[in-house]
Amino acid sequence: QVHLAESGGGLVQAGGSLRLSCIASGSTFSINAMGWYRQAPGKQRELVADITNGGSSNYADSVKGRFTISEDNVKSTVYLQMNSLKPEDTAVYYCNAVELFKGSTYDYWGQGTQVTVSS
Asked: Which pLDDT score is estimated for 45?
């Protein structure tokens, strides 16, 4: 079992920055990858960025060049630095962890943190 706790959301003006943090606890040794997803009202949840244990990262086209995902394996924490924020970045942001255990994968989710970007 993995528990995820997010922090760092809030209200910011367009062009501003925020940093989200997600701390993992529990069976963190079996986490294979972590990432951030977001869901805006009336839309499906979408991948924002993810990062594997090997350090490989992947970004949605809409955030490339503006957002950076990073991890601190010692602290079992993943961060999402969001710069040049736009109103269309407004959403609830969810932390995700993928656990690899005995050949099967399990997804865990945080409770979500609201990011609101005003124009």
From this structure: 97
Percentage above 90 pLDDT, the chain: 83
Under a CB-based contact definition with an 8 Å cutoff, are residues 47 and 37 in contact? yes
Alpha carbon separation from 105 to 33, 52, 97, 114 (Å, rounded) = 10, 14, 10, 27
Q: What is the rounded distance in angstroms from the CA atom of residue 48 to the CA atom of residue 39?
A: 10
Q: Give the single-character DSSP code of 17.
A: -
Nearest to 53 by CA among 98, 2, 105: 98
Long-range residue pairs from 103-107, CB within 8 A, at least 24 positions apart, any chain: 105/32, 106/2
Which of 50, 52, 48 lies closest to 61, judged by CA? 48
